[in-house]
Design a protein that fits this description.
Elements: H1 2-16, H2 19-41, H3 53-67, H4 75-92, H5 99-130, H6 135-146, H7 150-156, H8 164-192, H9 197-207, H10 211-225, H11 229-243, H12 245-266, H13 290-308, H14 315-340, H15 344-348, H16 352-380
């Protein structure tokens, strides 16, 4: 019996290891929700100021990280909340959609998403070259802005054999400008698309980098404008961008292999027996993230449930509402962890060239998305 307990103790330890950090994320998320509720009700005689709990959670996390700091014992739990918990919340957003509704949104969002993706790749690579940013870092900045933020950077990094410092720089740029857009773009959406929540969601889903940032911004907008349809539309628009990684990663692997083969043939001093660098896909690269598959599975589940459950049944709506509540809770806690991951000190270490390139690409892509979405609303909305 003692041997069994000793064998199980490492597993129990690994299970409990993230708990302190998750408790920190939940505590800050609850504080942010209470603060947002107090602002919206004008506590203390102050004027009412409706503010999203998610926005409060992100800002509170950023302030906490850059003033008090994050203790080492909380790091594992915050990482777990920022990845597993947040992605579970994103997948559960699929319960807000049926296949018919998702297809309708996708048909509207596809031209905007595809144009913004190609625009981001072209502008990112061009500006990086003009500003003298190293080639691999420029590719990571372009792919992170175009597709799905830090996830795309991490997936692309081994394919183009980027150095660890280049990957870290690209991730930091994506997080910096993505978080800035996440806090600012909901107000832009409210100004331009106040009466069109679907188009507000499409704008947010095509203008912001990372999936978590898109969902966070859409949740902020939905909470402040009381338009939950925007969250579903933003998720579908972002899903279209995420799926493009299944094409871009093999393409990047092929181009990298060609580039290395050309460099090897031109290098007269290379030893004859040296092995060429591998240009194929890394075995650890996942072309379609699991949370994207989970999002699609939730859409299918919602569609099947709506069709199968008898009319007048209260069980299925209760289950769906439970999924909504869990999704909002997971997203709020996960976005708190995102705020706690943003270090202003690390950003200043990057240097002005990558920061300038990242800022310019992010701004231009946001402008492209705003122009295209506004045009579609004007002509087809």
């Amino acid at each position: 019996m003692g041997a069994l307990l000793r064998a199980l103790s490492p597993r129990w330890g690994s299970l409990w290891h993230p708990v302190p950090g998750v408790i920190v994320a939940i505590t800050l998320a609850l504080l942010a929700r209470a603060f947002a509720d107090a602002l919206s009700h004008g506590v203390g005689g102050l004027p009412k100021f409706p503010l999203s709990p998610v926005m409060c959670a992100v800002v509170l996390g950023m302030l906490w990280r850059n003033t008090l700091g994050v203790p080492a014992w909380a790091a594992a739990g915050l990482k777990w909340a920022m990845h597993q918990l947040l992605r579970t919340g994103i997948a559960l957003v699929g319960l807000r959609l049926t296949l018919l509704g998702a297809s309708s949104i996708a048909a509207t969002a596809l031209p905007v998403a595809l144009t913004c993706l190609l625009f981001a790749l072209a502008v990112g690579l061009t500006l990086s070259r003009l500003l003298g940013v190293p080639r691999r870092l420029g590719v990571l900045l372009a792919i992170g802005t175009a597709v799905c933020g830090a996830t795309a950077v991490v997936a692309m990094s081994p394919v183009i054999r980027a150095r660890h410092a280049e990957t870290a720089f690209a991730v930091t740029c994506v997080v910096l400008f993505g978080c800035t857009a996440m806090l600012f773009y909901p107000w832009v959406a409210g100004h331009f698309f106040a009466a069109a929540p679907r188009y507000a969601g499409i704008f947010l889903g095509t203008a912001i980098h990372d999936t978590s940032q898109v969902v966070g911004a859409a949740l902020m907008y939905s909470q402040q404008a009381h338009q939950p349809e925007a969250l579903a539309a933003a998720s579908v628009a972002k899903l279209l961008r995420n799926l493009s990684i299944a094409v871009l990663i093999p393409l990047a692997a092929w181009l990298t292999q060609r580039h290395d083969a050309r460099s090897s043939s031109e290098n007269a001093g290379q030893e004859e027996g040296s092995a060429p660098a591998a240009g194929g896909l890394s075995g650890s690269v996942r072309l379609v993230p699991l949370f994207v598959l989970g999002f699609l599975a939730c859409i299918i589940l919602r569609t099947a449930g709506d069709a199968i459950m008898p009319a007048g049944s209260q069980l299925w709506p209760a289950l769906i509402n439970t999924g909504y509540t869990a999704s909002d809770l997971f997203l709020t806690c996960g976005m708190t962890a995102v705020g706690l991951s943003v270090s202003f000190t690390d950003m200043w270490r990057i240097g002005w060239r990558p920061l300038a390139a990242g800022f310019a690409v992010a701004t231009l892509v946001g402008g492209c998305s705003l122009a295209l979405t506004s045009g579609m609303l004007h002509f087809f909305g």
